[in-house]
């Protein structure tokens, strides 16, 4: 069978540890035999980031802006232990954070669902997509460990030197902690547009939640910007499709989500989205079964797995031990990116390949062949636990049988 031809390359961002191993296996067994793969390759492994002083991460993000679609392997965000382990020049920032900032993107995380994996919340029968505003808030905060008695103040001076705001935060009579966070209207606007556009594209209801009753300026700004953009630019299109935009407080949203049937997008501020995406992933199965798509308001897409680099399995792999690492989210990152490339370049064969490969991977699991983590969760009588590469090869067998 002739390989599917691509016209425009994907931006391929390699990563670290066990997911880097899986990355190569997926390309070898599930992509290269069927597609004449064209990528612009960037090695975002920690060693290469250190060699380039992290310039390669910026270059990769700029390439996504150029080509429109990227696919990224999981990467290490180094802590002090990693700095020592890899003998790094410094403690580099999260590659995902750098890429999100350059693309001005919103992260949409959706669980991969199937009948044999029952969610912990019994009422959920459709996936819930978490839209995370991945900018600012405590991830860009200024922190201070207060050592003694004193007064903490917040002040804003405009570009002309005029003090517009000067207020005491707290009079400390003992040691404590202090933190200042910020966000920007244009980033919140981009977040809102990305959420509304994703809802229209997927024909799903959109929920949004903050705590504006407590945070009467910070969170209320999010609420007001979303409502204004919805009323002026999206309300008619939502009504035409029969989908809704719904705002509520974050605590009420949690209660409603737990009682719901799923099947909607839940937009959250940065910290809320970070926490709730893990909650939703765990309730549906695991982070290994969750996709992550970064969408920018100007139409760029970056696909990746929602989980990390699976360090424990990587050390076992280095010692020659057999691993059984779930590759589903990484595979779906590849198929998602290839599907989007096919849609944008009008290559229906590439879109069909992505659909069929995802269906083959799900069918493989439904037939009882899976990695160890899923064997502990799957509601099937007959289950065969496969190793990391064994599972990927089994998916290829299933795909070949499906497509003939």
Could you list some keywords that capture this structure?
18 strands, alpha/beta, ten-stranded mixed sheet, two-stranded parallel ribbon, 404 residues
What would you note in describing this structure?
With 404 residues, the protein is α/β, with parallel strands linked by helices. It has helices spanning 17-31, 46-51, 55-67, 80-85, 95-103, 185-202, 218-241, 250-259, 270-284, 311-318, 328-345, 348-366, 372-375, 388-403, and strands at residues 4-5, 10-14, 35-36, 39-43, 69-72, 106-111, 129-132, 142-146, 150-157, 163-172, 176-180, 205-210, 245-249, 264-268, 290-295, 301-305, 369-370, 384-385. A 10-stranded mixed sheet has the order 4-2-5-16-15-6-7-14-12-13, with helices on both faces. Strands 1-3 form a two-stranded parallel ribbon. A hairpin with a 5-residue loop joins strand 9 and strand 10. Helix 1 (17-31) packs across helix 10 (311-318). The model has no long low-confidence stretch (mean pLDDT 95).
């Amino acid at each position: 069978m002739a390989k599917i031809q691509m016209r425009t390359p994907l931006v391929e961002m390699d990563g670290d540890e066990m997911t880097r191993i899986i990355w190569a296996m997926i390309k070898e067994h599930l992509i290269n035999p069927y597609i004449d793969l064209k990528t612009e390759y960037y090695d975002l492994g920690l060693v290469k980031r250190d060699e380039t002083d992290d310039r390669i991460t910026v270059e990769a993000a700029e390439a996504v802006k150029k080509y429109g679609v990227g696919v990224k392997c999981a990467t290490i965000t180094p802590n002090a232990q990693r700095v020592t382990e890899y003998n790094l020049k410094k403690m580099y920032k999260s590659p995902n954070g750098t890429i999100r900032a350059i693309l001005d993107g919103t992260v949409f995380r959706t669980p991969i669902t199937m009948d044999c994996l029952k969610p912990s919340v019994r009422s959920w029968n459709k996936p819930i997509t978490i839209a995370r505003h991945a900018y600012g808030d405590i991830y860009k905060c200024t922190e201070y460990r207060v050592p003694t008695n004193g007064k903490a103040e917040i002040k804003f001076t405009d570009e002309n030197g005029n003090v517009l705001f000067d207020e005491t935060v707290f009079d400390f009579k003992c040691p404590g902690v202090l933190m200042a966070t910020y966000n920007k209207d244009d980033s919140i606007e981009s977040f809102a547009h990305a959420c509304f556009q994703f809802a229209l594209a997927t024909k799903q209801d959109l929920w949004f939640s903050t705590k504006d009753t407590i945070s009467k300026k910070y969170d209320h700004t999010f609420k007001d910007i979303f409502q204004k953009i919805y009323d002026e630019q999206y309300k008619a299109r939502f009504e035409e499709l029969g989908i809704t935009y719904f705002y509520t407080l974050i605590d009420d949203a949690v209660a409603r989500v737990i009682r719901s049937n799923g099947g909607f997008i839940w937009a959250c501020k940065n910290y809320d989205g970070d926490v709730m995406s893990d909650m939703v992933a765990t309730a549906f199965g695991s982070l290994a079964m969750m996709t992550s798509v970064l969408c920018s308001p100007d139409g760029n897409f970056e696909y990746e797995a929602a989980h990390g680099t699976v360090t424990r399995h990587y050390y076992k792999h280095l010692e020659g031990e057999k691993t059984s690492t779930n590759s589903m989210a990484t595979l779906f990152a590849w198929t998602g990116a290839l599907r989007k490339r096919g849609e944008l370049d009008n290559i229906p064969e590439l879109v069909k390949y992505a659909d069929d490969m995802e269906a083959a991977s799900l069918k493989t699991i439904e037939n009882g062949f899976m990695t160890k983590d899923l064997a502990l969760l799957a509601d099937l009588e007959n289950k065969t636990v496969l190793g990391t590469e064994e599972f990927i090869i089994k998916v290829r067998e299933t795909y070949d049988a499906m497509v003939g």
